[in-house]
Design a protein that fits this description.
- The chain is 71% helix and 0% strand.
- By secondary structure, it is mainly alpha-helical.
- It folds into two domains: 6-91, RNA polymerase sigma factor, region 2, helix turn helix motif (Rna Polymerase Sigma Factor, Chain: A), CATH 1.10.1740; 94-187, Arc Repressor Mutant, subunit A (Orthogonal Bundle), CATH 1.10.10.
- Helix 7 packs across helix 8.
- It is elongated.
- The mean pLDDT is 79.
Length: 190
């Protein structure tokens, strides 16, 4: 039995054939899983990311136009990646950072599971998280902090460069330095 091409399935799907859409979803579910797993390290739920990725895939199926020159696999991958990046950025906006920084971290720097700790231990962990947050902010220059804030607000490198009156290369370097400094700050004991 020969497999129907993505393009044939897309045409049938865009004309309302449910089975064609279902087949495309089954084919591209591993792609959604791949991109969703790339964002799990941020502390986001895999199931939520999978759901958002599937929504992006459905949008790609609905909006794909073969006359634009891109293969559907490329278009779908880009839609899924962009959709998940947008979700991750909105989840990690600055107003959510203080909540994330108060959560206890394990030795690897991941958010540990909630436990029934003593109140003193909870207060100590909150103080450690606050200290870690202050140390991270102290490590960054004003420019690096501004770049990071805009990145967390969902801006692209080009948008950050435009807002700060710098080049994209300068923004890229500043964010690279910020990442290195934050890794060091998080690796040091509190």
């Amino acid at each position: 039995m020969t497999q129907i091409s993505d393009e044939a399935l897309l045409e049938r799907s865009q004309h309302g054939e449910y089975a064609a859409s279902a087949e495309l979803i089954v084919r591209y579910a591993p792609v959604v899983l791949y991109y969703a797993e790339r964002y799990c390290y941020l502390g986001l739920e895999k199931e939520d990311l999978m759901q958002e990725g599937m929504i992006a895939l459905l949008s790609a199926i609905r909006t794909y136009r073969g006359d634009r020159g891109a293969a559907f696999r490329t278009y779908a991958s880009r839609c899924i990646s962009n959709g998940l990046a947008k979700v991750a950025a909105s989840q990690l906006r600055a107003r959510n950072i203080p909540l994330a920084l108060t959560a206890p971290l394990d030795e690897a720097g991941n958010v540990s599971a909630p436990s029934q700790d003593e109140p003193e231990e909870i207060v100590i962990r909150q103080e450690q998280s606050r200290d870690r947050s202050h140390r991270m902010k102290a490590e960054l220059s004003e420019y690096e902090l501004a770049c990071l804030q805009l990145l967390l607000d969902g801006c692209s490198y080009a948008q950050i460069a435009g807002r700060l009156g710098r080049t994209v290369k300068s923004v890229d370097r500043a964010l690279g330095r910020a990442r290195q400094k934050l890794r060091r700050a998080l690796a040091e004991p509190v």
